[in-house]
Amino acid sequence: MIPLVDLFSLCAIGAGVFFFFAGTVGLLRFPDSLTRLHALAKADNLGLGLVALGLLPRADSALAAFKLIVIWALVLLSGASTAQLIGRALRRGRK
């Protein structure tokens, strides 16, 4: 059972790191600010969710697992709100 949990954690964290890397590549390669913002917001939210999912089986207690979920939810909400505000400011500046 333990090697399966180890494999699950490794795969989820590895996939999360891949999405972080993909978001960074999108940030560097896309031509304008809105597409860069979109790539970064989507990839980072998914990457952090996968890393948190991979760390959940490693949590020492239910409280530690709950803290991981709360941290992911707060980052998800703040990242989406910030991306919306930055995108709106960019759109207003273009008109």
Strand and helix map with partners:
Layout: H1 2-29, H2 33-55, H3 62-94
Structure description:
Helices cover 88% and strands 0% of the residues. By secondary structure, it is mainly alpha-helical. It has one domain. The protein is elongated and about 55 Å long. The protein starts with a helix and ends with a helix.
Structural class: mainly alpha
Low-pLDDT stretches are none
Oligomer: single chain
- Tally of helical segments: 3
The number of domains is 1
Query: End-to-end span in angstroms?
Result: 58 Å
How many beta-strand runs?
Answer: 0
Helix-strand pattern, N to C?
Answer: HHH
- Relative strand content: under 5%
Mean pLDDT: 90
Share of helical residues:
over 70%
Q: Rough shape?
A: elongated
The Rg value, from CA coordinates, equals 16 Å
Characterize the main sheet. none
Provide a quick synopsis of the model.
By secondary structure, the chain is an all-alpha fold. The protein has three helices and no strands.
Q: What are the defining features of this structure?
A:
95 residues, mainly alpha, 3 helices, 0% strand, elongated
